[in-house]
Amino acid sequence: MRVLVIGANGLTGQRIVKLLAESAHDPVAMIRDGAQRATFDELGVPTVLGDLEYPIEHAVRGSDAVIFAAGSGSSTGKDKTVLVDQLGAIRSMVAAETEGARRYLMLSSVGADIQSESRIAHYHRAKGYADEHLMSTDLDWTIVCPGGLREDEGTGTVSVGEDRFASGLTSRDNLAATLVACLDAPNTIGKRFSLLEGETPIEEALRSI
Ligand SMILES: NC(=O)c1ccc[n+]([C@@H]2O[C@H](COP(=O)([O-])OP(=O)(O)OC[C@H]3O[C@@H](n4cnc5c(N)ncnc54)[C@H](OP(=O)(O)O)[C@@H]3O)[C@@H](O)[C@H]2O)c1
């Protein structure tokens, strides 16, 4: 599959692109700044410029799948959270529908909920609205909800579950590997699940959901 990675230059996005480049899939990295190209050139991965605050149909065109790994981050204002994590995400779903990229994988978060009252409710609500929109589409979607992201080396083992409000940690290595593995696990279509540290090999964990 030709897979567009949105947020490809991010800490998780770069891991996703690298794993895809080593797989049978063909990644395309969506980046915001041409200066970020070198990382992907080294991997032999094509790039396309795109910003979620503007139309991105051109970036999605020709893709079979989209992995959304972008986010406005914690150092920007709450307006950017809505513009990128909520509206930008929904924009990418509309583009996927318009351009025929049927498979859509969302990197969400535990706690994502449109009625969140958490300490970072603006973020959890934005992610919640994006998730709700995705679930209302006809796309072949999967929503992966990690806990607090860590730079720890991936173990290849995780814990998956239906409790979207579970608390815990998730290594970005394991998160990237899980998102990529979902592409080859059709049983994950139409599923939203939490992803935390655990002892179950990723493929086995995905078979169980
Ligand atoms: N941090 C946590 O503990 C945690 C927990 C659960 C879920 N999450 C979710 O996981 C996501 C990925 O985390 P991460 O740490 O890998 O993120 P990251 O390193 O901050 O990467 C986010 C990426 O999004 C891109 N981006 C931001 N605004 C954009 C826009 N307008 N258009 C296109 N791309 C844009 C950034 O581009 P540039 O490289 O150009 O800046 C960056 O590459 C987060 O965004 C969050 O939603 C995080």
Describe the protein's architecture and organization.
It is built from 7 helices and 11 strands. The chain is an alpha/beta fold. It has a single domain, classed as NAD(P)-binding Rossmann-like Domain (Rossmann fold), CATH 3.40.50. The strands form 2 sheets. The protein has a 9-stranded mixed β-sheet with strand order 3-2-1-4-5-6-10-8-11, with helices on both faces. It has a two-stranded parallel ribbon with strand order 7-9. The radius of gyration is 16 Å and the shape is globular. It starts with a strand and ends with a helix. 46% of the residues are buried.
Please specify the SSE layout and strand pairing:
Blueprint: E1 2-6, H1 11-21, E2 26-31, H2 37-43, E3 47-49, H3 57-60, E4 65-68, H4 78-99, E5 103-107, H5 121-136, E6 140-146, E7 148-150, E8 157-161, E9 169-171, H6 172-183, E10 191-197, E11 200-201, H7 202-207
Parallel strand pairs: 1-2, 1-4, 2-3, 4-5, 5-6, 6-10, 7-9
Antiparallel strand pairs: 8-10, 8-11
Write a concise synopsis of the structure shown:
This protein has 7 helices and 11 strands.
Q: What is CATH's topology name?
A: Rossmann fold
**Radius of gyration from CA coordinates:** 16 Å
What's the shape? globular
Approximate strand percentage: 15-25%
What is the residue-averaged pLDDT?
Answer: 97
Whole-number total of structural domains: 1
Any guess at the CATH architecture? 3-Layer(aba) Sandwich
Low-confidence stretches: none
Q: What is the subunit arrangement here? A: single chain
Q: Class by helix and strand content?
A: alpha/beta
Q: Which ligands occur here?
A: NADP nicotinamide-adenine-dinucleotide phosphate
* Spatial separation of the terminal alpha carbons: 23 Å
